[in-house]
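Two proteins follow. First one:
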Amino acid sequence: MKLPSLRLFYFSVAALWILAVLYARGTAPVQGAPDIAPVAQAPPAVVAPDTFVATADSAGITAIHAGSWDEYSEVRDFTDGYLAMGQAWGDYDNDGWVDLYITGGQGASTLYHNLGDSPMPAMANEADAQLATAWFELYPHLIETTDGFTPPVAARAIGYGGITLYEALVHGLPGYQSLVGQLNGLSALPTPQSDQRYHWPTVANSAMSTITRMLFSNTGAANQKAIALLELQFAEAYRPLLDAATFNRSVQYGRALAVAMYGWSVTDGGHEGQLRNFPEAYVLPAGEGLWETTPPAHATALQPEWGRNRPMALRLDHPCVAAPPTPYSEEPGSAFYALAQEVYDTVRLLTPQQRIIARFWADDPGTTPTPPGHSLMVTTQLLQQNHAPLALAAETYARVGIAVNDAFIGCWQTKYQYNRIRPITFIHDHIDATWNDPDVTDPVITPPFPEYTSGHSVQSGAVAEVLTTLFGNITFTDRTHVTRGLLPRTYHSFWEMANEAAISRLYGGIHYRDAIEEGLVQGQCIGQQVVALRFRIK
């Protein structure tokens, strides 16, 4: 089929450019959507196939008109309601099919690469992040209200949820690649049929509803209904845009993908961890300087085997092992005694601002989404505040999820390797016997597991490394606990946030300083391994 001559409507001050008459190949790939790459400058020169301009800018268009690309009368539908400076089309990737370039006025511009599909369904890249953020706005509520979702268990759910979202979309994200073969134990996943069309947001919606039901299998009826309603909300929005075959095919592929993801998850050692947080068979080691149960509940050890779980990205030959803790000593003037004295003095002389910080980052299970849930909420707020496209949201949720999952595995391995005594126990026995009264000295309840390293530090450091790589050093505001009566807190970088989350455990009387500082180092190491994962094709 011979295409019409190039038409050019570009009204910026950039110089006009001209391309030759284009011809279409007789056999173009049919993948259900065009290639797409957001760009933020004047139209690029004609480029080689599959060459894209890398940027995280939003396309600024929320829906693509379902029509043939060679029907130029439909091009105007692309810019309805959008302040575009103009549009142009030409064969940018030299595949014989006309591609569309939308120039941005005050927003980003977008180059759409046509693969010859007719009609053209919505593309994963062009969508905004609403689908992703809606699902991950539900996760903190599920974590808080589902029995047994302690911090390690919550981190695991966030990890598998994030990877599922990404893998459900990746075949509709030009320039991105699957994590199969990169993550430990993930050797294969179902792939879409190359000769069939898919609606990638529908695939993702189906996959997320399926994996969420599986990960939160013991959640209550109200939460099960919430999962079903969220799935229905997006399904009913997408269904009218698609033919029945494409919609059903997309739903089925999403389910199959989620089932395969769940099959991978059950082999990691943490399967249904919410049902076995406190294993009765575990024998608590006894000895000088070792962890003992703490008031007020004196609960036994939480997830003592969690450090043996298979991590997602953490390399077995480089597991980010923490340095040994300060040697235990009961002698006044010793390094360890000084650490305990610092905790005692800090909490005894706590300033109002330090108390606010301690409470803001307490993130207690059962009453909050836990520390990894807090990191997830920060991620969602960040994506919403930056109007992120779905592609960036999918990558961000996957990286953050992997980071918190591996952070708790690495941290828990360290905790039960050293089994170090908590400050509340040492101070009660050697400095001040009234320390165990929460109304007097201990503003945050000590959790039931060994002290070294700090879980807050490790997971916050891992997340800070990931978010800094994705977004840079930006100012943002954390509104996670506004509904709980705590004021928002603003940070000028993700590491400023991580440092505050970490030091909050000193203010709360939970950790010694070396566990806090070494935890941040351990977390950064884990985050660097997550950053090293290859999401994008270079």
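Second one, unrelated to the first:
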Amino acid sequence: MKTLSRLILVFLLVVVVVGTAFADPTTLTAVQLSPDLRVLTVTFQGQPGKHSAFVIENPSRLVIDFDETALARITTRVPVHREPVDMIRIGQENGRARVVVDFGNHPVPPFKLDRRHDSVVVHLGSGSIGGRPAPPKQQQAQAVKPKPPTARESRLNSPPAKRNDLNVKSAGIAENLIYVEVTDEKDPKRAYRLVFDLDKTDFSVRGATVSDPTGSVRRFHLVSSESTPQAKVDSLEKKETPPAVESSPSGKGKFKWGLQSGPQTGLQSDDEFTEQESMTRGPLKMERFQLKPRQSAQTN
């Protein structure tokens, strides 16, 4: 009985070995690369056997070997010419099929092999193989569009504005006269008054008067000639009492300046100056006011 059992076991082993020897070998039938160049699919007729993958440098290549695998009549060179893949080559030697992915000067990305029923899928750009950690991903620099600065950042980054030594205290209009009063920023009690005589018909300035806190007055008179308007500047004169300007509130909340009668306005008519005088004295020269230091009381 034991002898019969042993004979049956030997017979079964022989059948398995003979069947395996005469079975059809696995055949590589197709190699496909996805449009995004991230998935490589190797298809077989039969179940794929043992396989391995490794990287070769200079130039960069990914090599995948399939043991005991035949090669069907397929194209052995598949040009891609899309970065980073240049070409896919397929070959066979000593009963082993080989698939080579050429990356040229580009480094081989991280990859992972996934074995299925009748195919092997190679994922490019993620995962690891054989317990070996995948190399770090290549970080591509992306152009970052600069954000427009906010209003607060613009104020902080902008250069400091130049401060003016004079501030406009009040202004107003009375008939054809325009009044402007400015004060010294360091000493608000020091006021300067400017009065302009405006011709509304020609929209031009007939004359102007400027007075400082010390009572000095400078008059500007514009005289028209046949060719070009000329201007006459009176010399500075000292008044015992500086011209005063009074203001009265108007209905709209603004101040309307009043004009005092008498020579305090400092304005003269254009008829007082002849064309010959204006041509002799020359055109108007604008002179910048220099602040006069406050005179201190002297003791005898």
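SUMMARY FIELD: The chain has a mean pLDDT of 69. The first strand starts at residue 26 and ends at 33.
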